[in-house]
Amino acid sequence: MQVSIETTSGLQRVMTIGVPAAEVEGKVTAELKRISKGQRVNGFRKGKPLPPAVAKRMFGKQARYEAIYQQMQQSFFKAVQDENVKLAGMPTFEPTVDEDGKDLEFKATFEVYPEITLADFGGIEVEQKTATVTDADLETMLDTLRKQNAQWEESAEAAADGDQVVIDFEGFIDGEAFEGGAAKGYSLTLGSNSMIPGFETGLVGAKAGEEKTLDVAFPEDYHKEELKGKPAQFKVTVTAVKKPQLPELNEEFFKGFGVETADEAEFKVEIRKNMDRELDRAVRNLTKQQVIAGLVATNEVEAPSSLVDQEIDRLRKQAVQQFGGGQQLDPNMLPAELFKDQAEKRVVIGLLMNAVIEANELTPSAEKVAQLIEEVAATYQDPEEVRNYYNSNPQQKSQVEALALEEQAVEKVLAGAKISQAEATYEEVIRAANQPA
């Protein structure tokens, strides 16, 4: 088998492969026997093999087509292995010489992974947050948990921030009602910022039965193009005002969070443990985000288009699942351009993290894997059951190992990066970690 490789542009390569005619003809003959076997042909006894000349006349083209395709695949992947090619994505094949009795020649067009030489980690700056869970943070969390489990009771009092109002409303632009600007029996929590600026504040102080006219404006970045920046007027009728009735801190309330105790102090200990774990994860995530951003900023990497296309397909499917499209919506209907930038970013990050792993010959640390499993187990009532689940399920454990390897790569970069410390509050760290990367 003769092989030559040509660089056409960037990461694209064209491999020209020649295969001896005898090898090709052997595959064609075998494929012809497979296709013609068991075929019923008028004038020939059922179950008897067709004469070669008849089989070739009837099925020769199909047999050659399938045999040639198989030959191209087998020859290509053998050449990839022999030539130590780092293949990214699947190739396309084009036969250039395909005639009976002649050596087969074909071209395979494909992309390779980029060769990455990592820049010195000293050019990466990371500001690590230091924070602790204070008693005030704990009390705020308890207050939040109570509000999340509040019961709403109708009230004759004026609506205040944090209250819920039930409203009928209709919106107008230049005196004309617009599509999607009306609703009846809509429940709105004041201060939730779920409506456009000015809408919720305009209802503070309203009582059940009141009618209000709100003059507001849609934000310049509003998601509907036709409404961006437009001034609008909403006519609102408040049908009910509801005040939150916070639950007592008692055994029943504690049980709802998986804590079997009647002692408030014990419940607080468990909540603080959860907050400590959440804070630790948030600090690590913020550090990881900065490490990744530093790697991207200090290393120029070309993303193979085939890998970007694969990532676009994954993002399309995620989008369909997120919005409940299921099998009723074809992911390919979503424009690729919507996901291209995000897909390219993900591919580049994956290539850089893999380069760190390969350059440092990292393998998943058993200690790190155990630590990550323990973090998950600690959030359940029966930690041992969770440990056993991961340790007896190879597929689930492999996912943890991949995460462990990623964290080890981050630690390796940190060891050479410029690190500074910055004090922060629990709330600041959690909020920052939840911001889109």
From TrEMBL:
<keyword id="KW-0963">Cytoplasm</keyword>
<keyword id="KW-0143">Chaperone</keyword>
<dbReference type="InterPro" id="IPR046357">
    <property type="entry name" value="PPIase_dom_sf"/>
</dbReference>
<dbReference type="GO" id="GO:0043022">
    <property type="term" value="F:ribosome binding"/>
</dbReference>
<dbReference type="Pfam" id="PF05698">
    <property type="entry name" value="Trigger_C"/>
</dbReference>
<keyword id="KW-0697">Rotamase</keyword>
<dbReference type="InterPro" id="IPR005215">
    <property type="entry name" value="Trig_fac"/>
</dbReference>
<dbReference type="Pfam" id="PF05697">
    <property type="entry name" value="Trigger_N"/>
</dbReference>
<comment type="similarity">
    <text>Belongs to the FKBP-type PPIase family. Tig subfamily.</text>
</comment>
<dbReference type="GO" id="GO:0015031">
    <property type="term" value="P:protein transport"/>
</dbReference>
<dbReference type="InterPro" id="IPR027304">
    <property type="entry name" value="Trigger_fact/SurA_dom_sf"/>
</dbReference>
<dbReference type="GO" id="GO:0003755">
    <property type="term" value="F:peptidyl-prolyl cis-trans isomerase activity"/>
</dbReference>
<dbReference type="GO" id="GO:0005737">
    <property type="term" value="C:cytoplasm"/>
</dbReference>
<keyword id="KW-0413">Isomerase</keyword>
<dbReference type="GO" id="GO:0044183">
    <property type="term" value="F:protein folding chaperone"/>
</dbReference>
<dbReference type="InterPro" id="IPR037041">
    <property type="entry name" value="Trigger_fac_C_sf"/>
</dbReference>
<dbReference type="InterPro" id="IPR036611">
    <property type="entry name" value="Trigger_fac_ribosome-bd_sf"/>
</dbReference>
<dbReference type="GO" id="GO:0051083">
    <property type="term" value="P:'de novo' cotranslational protein folding"/>
</dbReference>
<dbReference type="InterPro" id="IPR008881">
    <property type="entry name" value="Trigger_fac_ribosome-bd_bac"/>
</dbReference>
<protein>
    <recommendedName>
        <fullName>Trigger factor</fullName>
        <ecNumber>5.2.1.8</ecNumber>
    </recommendedName>
</protein>
<dbReference type="GO" id="GO:0043335">
    <property type="term" value="P:protein unfolding"/>
</dbReference>
<dbReference type="InterPro" id="IPR008880">
    <property type="entry name" value="Trigger_fac_C"/>
</dbReference>
<feature type="domain" description="PPIase FKBP-type">
    <location>
        <begin position="162"/>
        <end position="250"/>
    </location>
</feature>
<dbReference type="GO" id="GO:0051301">
    <property type="term" value="P:cell division"/>
</dbReference>
<dbReference type="InterPro" id="IPR001179">
    <property type="entry name" value="PPIase_FKBP_dom"/>
</dbReference>
<keyword id="KW-0132">Cell division</keyword>
<comment type="function">
    <text>Involved in protein export. Acts as a chaperone by maintaining the newly synthesized protein in an open conformation. Functions as a peptidyl-prolyl cis-trans isomerase.</text>
</comment>
<dbReference type="Pfam" id="PF00254">
    <property type="entry name" value="FKBP_C"/>
</dbReference>
<keyword id="KW-0131">Cell cycle</keyword>
